[in-house]
Amino acid sequence: MLAKKININGIVQGVGFRPFVYQLAATHQLKGRVANTSSGVFIHIEGPSPAIENFSRELTDNPPPLAHITQIDIKETRLKAYGDFSIRKSQSRGQRFTLIAPDVSTCDDCLKEMLDPGDRRYQYPFINCTNCGPRYTIIEDIPYDRPQTSMRLFQMCDLCQAEYDDPMDRRFHAQPNACPVCGPMVQLLDSTGATMVSKDPIADGVTLLKSGHILAVKGLGGFHLVVDAENQAAVKRLRQRKHREEKPLAVMSCDLDVIRQYAAPTPAEEQLLISPQRPIVLLPKKEPEILAEDVSPHSRFYGVMLPYTPLHHLLLKDSFRALVMTSGNMSEEPIAIDNQEALERLGMLADYFLLHNRDIYLRSDDSVVKMVGHGPRFFRRSRGYVPRPVFLKKPVRSILACGAELKNTICLTRENQAFLSQHVGDLENLATFNFFKKAIGHLKRILDIKPEYIACDMHPDYLSTRYAREQTGIDVLEIQHHHAHIAACMAENQVEGPLIGLAFDGTGFGTDGHIWGGEILLAGFDRFERTAHLAYVPMPGGAAAIREPWRMAASYLFQAYGRDFLPLDLPFFKTVQAHKVETIIEMIEKRINSPYTSSVGRLFDGVAAMVGLREKVAFEGQAAMELEMTADLSEKGVYEYALPRDKSMEIPVEPIIRGVVEDIQRQVHPSEISMKFHNTLICLFAEACTGIRRQTGFTQVALSGGVFQNTIMLSGLTKALEKKGFEVLSHTEVPSNDGGIALGQAVVADAMLNRK
């Protein structure tokens, strides 16, 4: 007989780990105890040596489905002669290192019970167990016990308490455990906040949706605005009220068979759809389109997800082919999570409200992914994935990284773990900035991390940078935007560099004071060298050139032709008045509010406007997205291009622009021009990397920045570089856009401190 103490770290709380240990001990006839601690799970086990060895092996080989063990420490200890094996109350001791499980979609066992008329939870919209349900969005502190969650307000009935206390039950210590007798309930309200008399609020909500009304529905991480996705009038009305003119809207369907009616998912995409995280997956449309035309205009894709809460299942079952499920907010604001807040903020948007009285402690938008190559690529990493960490190759200091301005997330590091927050959004208003600060406080508390340093972007006007500079008693490190992009890619791929980094996006503050975005860097974590970039062009009007891509078209044309471009027969001249074009030329010539940019994103904008696709945009990146969507994938042509001459770092853009213009003059279809443009950039940068390899010997290339959300660019450049013998690194754990930049800021800051 011997005794061992076992400490386990990782995602081991709220995932059925203690009952798993209890049942495992019973199987091997072992004695002892198990308890949650502030750092994970502690086990004291006693019995014959062979039985303990088998017990220890099964701990790591067959843990519960939602568990993720990051560390296990087993040591011999003295016998205490326990008479049985028991589950003890949670212990709070020392520094808290436990990991919190993300929110998880409803499991098959709970769904089966919910749809069984003989079950006591029949059609109960808050059914859950240890294997499913809310986690991150309801937790206030750790250890993860009911008093530390928003479920503390609901006293369990005797039946629920018995399940909660039984180690052999699927609901043992399932903190959100409840039933219709003791748990949260749903209400139907009108837009004024008056409660509707209803025996079945969900069924009545379905009736309202079928009649074309807009419902605000409270979900797991916030409110959705919901309409029937086949009702064009309702979808159009939702867009008008939400001021979301053209950006695609996400939809939800009850199962894969229904999704296959309007989209064409691959087997890999279907696996993503049914995963416990239930992200929005970008799927190719089927033709002809059977959903309302305003669901996803000017795109070949739908953003589709399956239900992830019992309430969603009840809304969709046998009622709709698809429901639009878009975030419950006015455009550019955070999603609403509180009932009263929702009534105040969404009262002008929704006709009715389907509410419940289980509080959401922290908002969490739906995650968005797309299958590219062999794996999913994040457009937005949020619900279902946060706060699971990104594991780093080496331990780093405890650092708070504040992220960028757009698509903001924050990052906290501890040892070899980097914790990115859920999607915060664009830090352009007070509501989002307040959410940013709340997300920082919440993550610091539940992870028990006290940052030693703060990292932020170099841009002086970003609210995230201002926040960092305003903190007292802590050193701030400012990290160049594109260095952070490449470092994030390196960190998630666990490589240290130095390597060649291609950082392509729309906007980033450069060390020379200009706007970068088409950069070839030689980068390690602690430093970078800018070895080449797209030639600078003026951005007439600054931010206005982002909203009106025709301004960028005029700038590139002026650079390539001078004033000789004015007589050219180009599509945007038909809609943009001549005096406006003349004003832009004067701004460029006189350097009035025309900052220089090297951005690939702005080049995409300019070409999209030249070929007549988009003169103004309704959302960030729209012109570039539509240029990708229109590309004829069978076109193999390439425009003439040039690499930097002599010791110049600038890659000239004029040859590409002239090639595009010549094709426009010859009335070549925009789809062919778009693909030739993509092909040209792929060939140009693959050749540039080959030249840099000859000089440096570097054989790894990291691809990062929002431009690599473009599937043609990501896949094409990856294949071209691999064909030339490079090892290509790209993002699979965090977004390539600014949603992943906080990770890069954190690891760069740590490396800079090491260098000092």
Largest sheet: 10 strands, mixed
Instruction: Count the domains.
Output: 5
> How do the strands of the widest beta sheet line up side by side?
6-13-7-8-12-9-11-10-14-15
Structure classification: alpha/beta
Number of helices: 22
The CATH C-level class name of the largest domain: Alpha Beta
Classified in CATH, the superfamily of the largest domain is ATPase, nucleotide binding domain
Rounded to the nearest angstrom, the radius of gyration is 28 Å
- State the end-to-end CA separation: 53 Å
Strand content: 15-25%
CATH-derived architecture of the largest domain: 2-Layer Sandwich
Number of strands: 28
Low-confidence stretches: none
Portion of residues within helices: 25-40%
User: Shape, please?
Assistant: globular
Mean pLDDT: 94
CATH topology of the largest domain: Nucleotidyltransferase, domain 5
Keywords:
756 residues; alpha/beta; Alpha-Beta Plaits; DHBP synthase; 5 domains; six-stranded mixed beta sheet; 22 helices; 28 strands; 21% strand; globular
Summarize the structure.
This protein folds into 5 domains: 2-87, Alpha-Beta Plaits (2-Layer Sandwich); 100-184, Alpha-Beta Complex (DHBP synthase); 186-356, DHBP synthase, CATH 3.90.870.40; 378-489 and 736-755, 2-Layer Sandwich (Nucleotidyltransferase, domain 5); 533-729, ATPase, nucleotide binding domain (Nucleotidyltransferase, domain 5), CATH 3.30.420.40. It has 22 helices and 28 strands.
Protein model, in words:
The protein has 756 residues and is of the alpha/beta class. The chain has five domains: 2-87, 2-Layer Sandwich (Alpha-Beta Plaits); 100-184, DHBP synthase (Alpha-Beta Complex); 186-356, DHBP synthase (Alpha-Beta Complex); 378-489 and 736-755, Nucleotidyltransferase, domain 5 (2-Layer Sandwich), CATH 3.30.420; 533-729, 2-Layer Sandwich (Nucleotidyltransferase, domain 5). Helices cover 32% and strands 21% of the residues. It is built from 22 helices and 28 strands. Strands 6-13-7-8-12-9-11-10-14-15 form a ten-stranded mixed β-sheet, with helices on both faces. Strands 26-23-22-21-27-28 form a six-stranded mixed β-sheet, with helices on both faces. Strands 4-1-3-2-5 form a five-stranded mixed β-sheet. It is globular. The two termini are 53 Å apart. The model has no long low-confidence stretch (mean pLDDT 94).
